[in-house]
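WARN retry 2 of 3 for item q-0093 after timeout on previous attempt; input resubmitted unchanged.
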Amino acid sequence: MSSQIQFVKEKLNSAISQLCETSWMFVKDPARDFTRERKLPLREVISLLLCMEGGSLTGELLRYFGCSQHTASSSAFIQQRQKINEFAFPSLFDIFVRYTDKGRLYKGYRLLAADGSDIQIPTDSNHTDSYFPGTNGQAPYSLLHLNAVYDLLLHTYIDVDLCGRRDWNEQRALVNMVDRSFVEKALIIADRGYESYNLMAHIQEKGWKFLIRVKDIYSSGIASGLELPDSDEFDLHCPVQLTRRKKAETIPLFADRNHYKWIGSSTPFDYLPTGSHKHDPIAFYDLPFRIVRFKLSDSTYETVITNLDEERFPPEELKHLYGMRWGIETSFRELKYTVGLLHFHAKKVENITQEIFARVILYNFTELITSHVVIQKPNRKYPYKANFSVAVQVCRQFLLGNVSPPAVEATISRNVSVTRTGRSSPRNMVVKHAISFLYRVA
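OK item q-0093 returned
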């Protein structure tokens, strides 16, 4: 397995090399930036950002340079990183994903979960897309929103989209990620925030499948606009046709609520014209789907919409697949609190963006390496998995060249944690704040 571990590192190094070879595309002033010999050339700046932990900037530089007398200063690092443009780290992420993506299939489909998470950053009133002035005595704050598509079988992110929280639109972000994806056959699993005919149509046009939790039948949403069976559980096929035309010739059709739907001109839908002339033929868009309601516990039910085949994917299978979506939630927790997504070394949003993409790349790097480590399975009550906190620390050192592949494999396989399935606990909704630069480990 050491060869596979080395392979992952070589692919990340190849991605960095490709970026550096075309550095003129990823710096702000190609005629001047990174053209002179310095302690921090472009490759060193990228490597340093990838391997940063949660300490102070000076501490990170001392650790990276081994406390050498030739350690670059914080000022030098800041000046160098500001030469990198906004496309560099998103491009590095995309290249690394393409180099290492080996999709595993479940019944012929890649299982991709879609979700988003807020990221608290240092307050910046100049960045209007992320700044909130606060109300009722609340201090002002700034938020970014990370939208992501996560492979539930590989445990890696295959696409991410970052925006200011004020410009937040998860449906639009997922539409863009679906349209630009290189994956051929996939199943998108998403929560209630993605309930949208437009998104479902984009997934259908891509040739993919969707499994989206929707608001329950008693709430306002897609389900409430359909004629559904009078039972707690059901599996109903709805061959819906959508149109923007609401005239005398179409109004009678809308009485059949499970076959015809009107889409208003202000509602986003990219496959129907927003306007038409009186004598134009009526434009319809076919969007067949199943709406399924199944039982979770004695008193709770979930409603989902899907275009999966009912024979291969009965309600129990849909319930299992939707439960797998929780993998992206736990990945956000690991990304923030283990990889260190919340510990930034900058205040400008453009520099924070570099660190966010760097953390996502390091997360993928760690998961890809951990997936090649064999965990021994003696007779134990519970299954065990690699301790991700230890794996992140080891993979940082491996990327820096301080650990050999056999040592990586041995250390990760020796540090494991128990896996207990079926547990649940309420979410902690305590307000979180950006971590100050003044309260860091030296």
